[in-house]
Amino acid sequence: MVPNSDAPTRSSRLALLLGDPSGIGPEIVARVLAEGASPHKTTAGYGGVNIIVIGDPWILDWGAQCADLSLDLPRYNSPGDLPLSAPGPVLLTGPSFSPDAHTPGRMSPAAGRYVLQTLNFAADLARANVIDGISYASLNKQAMHAAGSPHEDELRYFADRLGVSGYVGEVNTLDGLWTSRVTSHIPLRAVYEHISVDEILPAIRLIHNTIRQSGQPSPRLAVAGLNPHAGESGLFGSEEIDVISPAVEAAQEEDIAASGPYPPDTVFLRASRGEFDGVVTMYHDQGQIAMKLLGFERGVTVHGGLSTPITTPAHGTAFDIVEKGVASPQALKQALKLCTQMITGGRAANPHRQRTT
């Protein structure tokens, strides 16, 4: 059968989710939309990608009220009604959420249930090739667990819903600097049980492939040590000698530009000066503290290893500032920009970031 070359084709689509309705998500989504989905406010979508806002319309309206804004997006009730291309963002009605269950500024199982329904809705659209990527405003893990989520976080929830069985992990980025971690949301006392070549090497591969997916072909990666001073040649621990160095060597054999292990207390200083494009850390706070100090309001989390590009701000739901009209949209803007680049294969590195040799 000969394909019909005259058949209409749609533009790339990025789904934008409102996040936890009890948090600042609806407000920062409204702020991003009010500023224009394009950097120049003249082209359809963000960088040529159409933004499809998914959620209960009244939640977006409430977010706009918090920001003292007025929005008037074209609204569609069914994915099948979406235009092939749109001159700007549109709103697709998603799962409903009762205003009677709305508790601004407080953790709510009802809000967590709505979040899970919205994640399911968006993931199903991705599996059906209706959308090409997802960015979502901040969620609350406690609310999701209270609503019955069996997963430790939204990354694993998405992996399950998208049918991804391979290695997945969170990758964070800020101003062109990236970081991944070998262990994530587990108690600190359990970290040592997971520091092995079999767990370090996939984390190196993950950040390498994620940065390449964003358009940077040859990322330079530093691998942090586990112990103070990277073990000081075994004086403060032998993990660097026994498992971290062999994992780095194995990555190099796969033509990954990885090096280390480096002392954890200085590796981000070197990376922030442009010596490395990404840092692989051994546990959650080893990288997160450094990245959030470098720019808490601009950081982005990428769900690495999934079949669909998914990004979100690295900050939380900020219940303490809900309805105060002061929430910053900067991290969400960066999440949208990065997801767009991953959809289109554009370069994600910060043009102002210096690369040293």
UniProtKB/TrEMBL annotation:
<dbReference type="Pfam" id="PF04166">
    <property type="entry name" value="PdxA"/>
</dbReference>
<keyword id="KW-0479">Metal-binding</keyword>
<keyword id="KW-0520">NAD</keyword>
<dbReference type="InterPro" id="IPR005255">
    <property type="entry name" value="PdxA_fam"/>
</dbReference>
<dbReference type="GO" id="GO:0051287">
    <property type="term" value="F:NAD binding"/>
</dbReference>
<protein>
    <submittedName>
        <fullName>4-hydroxythreonine-4-phosphate dehydrogenase PdxA</fullName>
    </submittedName>
</protein>
<dbReference type="GO" id="GO:0016491">
    <property type="term" value="F:oxidoreductase activity"/>
</dbReference>
<dbReference type="GO" id="GO:0046872">
    <property type="term" value="F:metal ion binding"/>
</dbReference>
<keyword id="KW-0560">Oxidoreductase</keyword>
